[in-house]
Amino acid sequence: MQSQRSNTLLWFDTCIHPDDVVDAKNYMPEYEYTVTGVKRIKKRERVQLGSTVVINGKALAIFRHGDDRFFAIQQICPHAGGNLAMGDIEEIDRMLCISCPRHKWPFVLLSGDCLVTDTIRAEQYPVEIRLTNGIKSIFVGFPGLNQTLFYEADF
Ligand code: FES
């Protein structure tokens, strides 16, 4: 029988206020077609959508889409090291994806799945907005407490 603790998440405070994360909804890519019919993203001012933080030994990119949708995903692309925090957020097949700025491979923000190949996947973490001393902050949950020496009660 699986222990209940194996499903426990350990939550870490990123110390990032939700309002400090760029709302990607305001920077969704727009497309245009060249005279030869090639579809490309319209040039626009580059805005870094991902807020970066190193937490629990992991470099993460935190994204926001709208008022209340937040995502945490590993900052370094698992394909070849692109900086996912610098990518664009696009909706593909009704799924919000972060497109790596290096080779444009999209990763589903809710699962980390790569839409180009199923051989790689970005680490993705649950996010909660919590109040600490009356101040909102983004918390990220890490699974696998059963594999560590520490339990939530230790913190
Ligand atoms: S480095 Fe990210 S898609 Fe290649």
From TrEMBL:
Residues 52-130 form the Rieske domain. The keyword Metal-binding applies. It comes from the Eukaryota. Keywords: 2Fe-2S, Iron, Iron-sulfur, Metal-binding. InterPro entries: Rieske_2Fe-2S, Rieske_2Fe-2S_sf, Sol_Rieske_ferrdox_dom. Gene3D superfamilies: Rieske [2Fe-2S] iron-sulphur domain. PROSITE patterns: RIESKE. Pfam families: Rieske_4. GO terms for molecular function: 2 iron, 2 sulfur cluster binding; metal ion binding. This is Rieske domain-containing protein. It comes from Thraustotheca clavata.
